[in-house]
Amino acid sequence: MASATDEKADTVCPVARSVDVVGDRWTILVLRELYMGATRFEEIQIQTEATPQMMASRLKALEADGMVERQPYSDKPLRYEYRLTDKGWAFHPVIYALRAWGEIWCKDTDEEVAMHFVHRECGHDVGLANVCPHCGKPVERKDLDGSMGNDYATERAARRASFTRK
C-alpha cells in the first residue's frame, strides 16, 4: 500500500490514485471503525482483527495521507487516539456505498441488515439509500443515527470478549 511518502501511481487517473490511499482490506476496515466512532488503536484492532503491525502501518499511512490525525489522550504513558480529518470524512460516501452494495450482493437473503441508519430530521430508516425515502432529502453521515442489527452487534461483542480473554 502506498502512502504519502511512497511513490504514487504514475497516472492522472483518480481511481488509481485513490487506490494508492485506501486500496486494501485493512485500510477500509480501519476507516469503517473510525466512522463507527472508534478512536483508539486497541478498539480498532479488536474489530478489524488486524495484527498490531498491520494496524500501525495502516494508521501511519492514513496519517501521512491526511486522512486521520493523531491526538494524545494520555501523557504517561504517551498514548494517541485517531481522528478523521475533513479528507477522511469525505471518504465516508464510498464506505456507505460499499455497505449498500455488500448488503445486496454479498449476503444471503435471510440475513438481517448489519447497520440501520435513521434520518435524524424525520425519524425514518433510510435503508440502503443516500436519499431518505420518507422525506426525499439527501443524507450524509452527519444526518444519520446508526444502530447495529442484532447479529452484527453479537459478532462485535464476541470479538471484544475474545480479545480481552487473550
From TrEMBL:
Keyword line: DNA-binding, Transcription, Transcription regulation
Keyword match Transcription: yes
Any GO MF annotation of the entry: DNA binding
Record carries keyword Protein transport: no
Gene3D superfamilies according to UniProt: Winged helix-like DNA-binding domain superfamily/Winged helix DNA-binding domain
Domain HTH hxlR-type: from-to ranges: 13-110
Domain of life: Bacteria
Stored Pfam families: HxlR
Protein name: Transcriptional regulator
Organism: Paraburkholderia ginsengiterrae
